[in-house]
Specification:
alpha/beta; TIM Barrel; eight-stranded parallel beta barrel; three-stranded antiparallel β-sheet; 12 helices; 39% helix; globular
């Protein structure tokens, strides 16, 4: 089947980045509704090879490739992304209350580097809005749904636990796993919560809340995942590895976007604040993954994210110790064909 995305990308790249983002989601939703999404996405998920199924965190993933949080923030196109071939979709970041995010413009393409800078700021419709969206968008999705949660921008750091516990409880019934996002650079002070002490307390409180919720949801067990930044020092990563190993956390995602601009320093947009993703992040994110894997209990799976732009990038993360991989910016530059290429490489 011919890859039509290069033509679509030319048209989308004539629009500003955020407009193109929303246009793409709308087009995917419309294409799925009309039954023509398979013309560009390939065969539907349920027809893919059964041999690709993998069990991670007690969940059966149809394959190792997932969509990272940030592309479908509101959970509106889960089924459509499933038809593209993803074995899991992570939506969000979801906050307790709706918020509009940071001022525009807040999304930028660095085309020469196959990269993106974003400072979206957790724009989302809040728990209730996301749950309403999932009633429609998830109907025929056969994969695993992760929900990424965070705190509202106006919630002080000292009150962060309340927001995470509220979100966890609110999405528990809908989620197959929940990721606590402590690593976005676009909410002031959020990354300060990545200390070993804070992570330990958060994991403990979420686990306690999970035991309460099990009685309400027919003993349903929802794995708890922590997503970390790529900009931590080696000592900080080792400290977190010790904390994760002793806390019983179910999984870790490495990594979120980076604030480092060394690889794109000469680009006109390099000084834009926000998180850098895409090809410039590939090596750094894999190094963090490798170090965490070497220092952390082998019983805790890692989801490799950050700079997965090709099948070889995905394979490098699996070789470094990832059980699953996630795609974000790679999809913007390569389109749905990337998912098939990664599945072949793995």
């Amino acid at each position: 089947m011919p890859d039509l995305y290069p033509l679509a990308r030319k048209l989308l790249f004539t629009l500003d980045a955020e407009t193109a983002h929303h246009t793409t989601l709308s087009m995917m939703s419309a294409a799925k509704s009309c039954g023509v999404l398979s013309l560009v996405a390939g065969p539907p998920l349920q027809l893919r090879q059964e041999s690709r199924t993998v069990e991670v965190m007690g969940l059966k993933f149809p394959n190792r490739v997932g969509l990272a949080a940030g592309l479908d923030k509101a959970g509106t196109v889960v089924g459509a992304f499933g038809d593209v071939g993803f074995g899991h979709i992570e939506i969000g970041t979801v906050t307790p209350r709706p918020q509009s995010g940071n001022n525009k413009p807040r999304l930028f393409r660095l085309k020469e580097h196959h990269a993106v800078i974003n400072r979206m700021g957790f724009n989302n419709p809040g728990i209730e809005g996301v749950l309403q969206n999932l009633k429609h968008s998830r109907k025929d999705f056969a994969g695993i749904l992760g929900i990424n949660i965070g705190k509202n921008k106006d919630t002080p750091n000292e009150d962060y636990l309340e927001d995470y516990l509220t979100c966890f409880e609110g999405v528990y019934g809908a989620a197959d796993y929940v990721t606590a996002n402590l690593s976005s650079p676009n909410t002031a002070g959020l990354r300060d919560l990545q200390s070993a002490e804070t992570c330990s307390e958060l994991i403990k409180r979420l686990q306690e809340k999970r035991e309460e919720l099990k009685t309400r949801f027919d003993n349903k067990h929802v794995p708890i995942v922590i997503k970390i930044a790529p900009d931590l020092s080696d000592d900080a990563i080792k400290s977190l590895a010790f904390t994760f190993s002793n806390s019983g956390v179910d999984g870790v995602i490495t990594t979120n976007t980076t604030i480092d601009r060394d690889t794109v320093s000469r680009h006109p947009l390099a000084d834009e604040t926000g998180g850098l993703s895409g090809k410039p992040l590939t090596e750094k994110a894999t190094e963090v993954l490798s170090l965490l894997r070497s220092e952390m209990s082998s019983e805790i799976p890692i989801i490799g994210s950050g700079g997965v732009m090709s099948g070889s990038d995905a394979k490098a993360k699996v070789d470094a110790g990832a059980s699953l991989v996630q795609v974000y910016s790679g999809l913007i530059y390569s389109g749905p064909a990337l998912v098939h290429k990664i599945l072949e490489a793995l």
